[in-house]
Design goal:
By secondary structure, this protein is an alpha/beta fold. It is built from three helices and three strands; from the N terminus they run βαβαβα. β2, α2 and β3 form a beta-alpha-beta unit. It starts with a strand and ends with a helix.
């Protein structure tokens, strides 16, 4: 089994994702990969727990101007 998990960058999202990943690895010998931005907490906690990490480029959509939103969507 393979699984990709994204935690949203904060401890409130990453910590539960790590718990799920650990259960999948223990119960199903799953190959787990975390996906996140360079700023997210998953960049530290995922590899520290022994999980692979794939980085993605993030952008802003909330509380920013139209030009920033369009730039984010185009990337």
């Amino acid at each position: 089994m393979r699984a990709i998990l994204a935690g949203g960058g904060t401890g409130g999202h990453v910590i539960p994702a790590l718990a799920i990943a650990q259960e999948l690895r223990e119960r199903h010998s799953a190959d787990i990969r975390f996906i996140g931005t360079a700023r997210g907490l998953e960049t530290k906690l995922g590899p520290a727990a022994g999980f692979a990490l794939a980085g993605i480029e993030g952008g802003a959509l909330k509380d920013v101007g139209l030009a920033t939103r369009l730039g984010t969507l185009c990337r």
